[in-house]
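To close the chapter, one final illustration. This time we ask the reader to focus less on the individual chains and more on the assembly as a whole: which components sit near each other, and how the overall shape emerges from the parts.
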Amino acid sequence: MTMRSTFRIAVLAAAAVVAVPGLAQQPNPLDNVPEKMPFDIPYGTPISLERAEAAIAAAAGESKKHDWKMNISVVDSGGNLVAFQRMDGAQIASIKISQHKATTAAMFRRETKVFENGIQSGLNYLITLDGIIGSRGGILLMDGGKLVGAIGCSGGTGSQDEVVCKAGAAAVNK
Amino acid sequence: MKTRPVLTLDDCMKIHAAAEAEARRNSWNVAIAILDDGGHLMHFARMDGATPANAGIALEKGRTAAISRRSSGKWEEIVKGGRTSMIKMPGILPVQGGVPIVADKVCIGAVGVSGVQSHEDEQIAQAGIDALLKG
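The assembled structure is written out below.
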């Protein structure tokens, strides 16, 4: 071992001694163990095409009211595409984004806004999870307390996407 | 400047309604994808009973027809004819069931179907296109 590396280790060790009490003063909120699991929603029968198309029709209707051009995807409880519509003039990039939002909502059993909020509040680890999209506009489709699918919208701002999604979900949720 | 016809969502809905009717007439459960001339999805529906795999296959057949301007069945024939190297063509799924939509001699998009036998998939796609162009 050279003199220089010995010195470097000494500096690192000193830094560690300083850092540890610093952490102890600020407990990591992620260390908290809640008793109940979050978003513990049972998966139900995959959504039928009829209901998926009803959700899309309602969402597209809401879009038209505002003259918004949206891409709207509906996936089943397995996150697989059931129905899709791209309104005339909607941007091409949003084809995949709308599907990604719907699939993420279904697979994580929560609306994609949860991830947007989490990342915004500094929970950067969320970005490392598989299949995440940190943008609102993906919402669950429910039937009798069970998850049957999800709807994802993209084309406008996240807030516009969400309005359209909610209109679609409201038309079919039971 | 040159102008050309463009596929609209209304057109897609007409195509889809006729294609799905053709499938129902035969009690076939399929996925039907309709794409524009850039191979980008415009309308999609997977009938109850069609598998998640059908969704992806319908899309890829449709994309093949849309971006190559010829039916995916043509590509299948080429491969069957012995040109196996064509399997490696980028963006090409050489399986019958993807049909281009040709209006005024211009390819404006394509329909891809998956769920039953390949020639039946193509029959459904063609029924949808005929409803738009000849209906």
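The first helix of chain A runs from residue 3 to 25. The two ends of chain A are 70 Å apart (CA to CA). With these observations in hand, you are ready for the problems at the end of the chapter.
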